[in-house]
Model the fold of this input.
Amino acid sequence: MIKYLIILAAAVLVVMPVMAQSAPDQINVALEDLSTLTNRTVTLTQVEAWNYQQTVYASPALGCPQQGVSYADVQTSGFQFIITYGGTVYDYRVSEDESIVVLCGTAPAPVTVPPCPPPDDPDFLAPRLSKGMDAQVVEGGLPNVMREQPGSSSQPLGQIPPQDSFVVLDGPRCTTLDKIVWWQINYNNLIGWTGEGQDGEYWLEPLGTVAAPTATPTAPVIQLITTDNANTISQLYTADVNTPYVPNELDDSTLILGGADGSITFLDYRTNEVLSRIEAHDTAVNSMAVGIDGIRFAYYLATGDADGIIKIWNVDIQTSELELLTEINAHTGSVTSLAFDQRGSILASGGADTSVRLWSMPDGGSLAVLNGHEASVTQLEFSTAAILSHDSTGKLMIWGIPTDASVG
Done:
């Protein structure tokens, strides 16, 4: 499915700029199906873009065979319609006699990013940052606010104190009302957007414009691994352990190890020092996730064990100590995967019982149960507007809220 979406998105980039002058009648069948799918009437004048091609297909599958359906080897004339509506690209196949209509797949619509800053607007500061750069909030300034999206009205996620550093992930994006250049950043594993400056004053600067703190003699400098330095990687740490463990990274020097004996260990891999260790679970720790609440400035650790129990911990990043916040009887059988959303407000868990479950943070209240997998859920990941789950048979499922869904 992922491969198909990539192919469809690439095709859209090629064909969508060319608009057909007139549409064959068969497009109305596709629009009727799209109206049913979106629960609203969709006409040709309401779509953002469309295009089509007519083809003689090898079978009534119209080049998009459906699982569990058998097709005769009969050549079938039909149309492929690429329709962009509501920010989504729909690939419809319709037979010439209109007796067959198939939604072959969907993909996010390509996004055109305008120049930033606009070349004819002198009120914007000239950007000093760039993608992939290490940067920081300027010394002596105010904390910089991180937000969900570019723009001063977007939901705040947290603040970055002066001289705290981060990695620039994407940008720039410009908001024309307040004349601010925005960058997507990763600050202590919290991802959001922050402004570079306004009215002639820079709030951010590339790291290295002021002296960076030097590493202690016992802690070697850990560099970002890139294509340029990958050939210089060497071993940082090795140990003989009596129990298998599940690793998770807290920051750029600390690993959290969940043991098959139920233990949780904090390890500084610069110095090979065990920072702390506790007996946390009665059975093996099979999954872990670290979440950051940017509003409360709290670090959370979620651990899941072989008995289906999830424990949520508050992490003191200064002392590597854990405080148990709540315990959840989450799954029947092992907790096989855990993931936090970007705000640290929702925890998703996947289990050997094939379910995906959502929990509120930090109280552990049940939010939803998502059923659909038929095997153990081995991997979970939050994107900006969706949850991705993967099971042991290779099935990938994407969960989200349709744009027309209402809050009851």
In short: The longest helix spans residues 2-15.
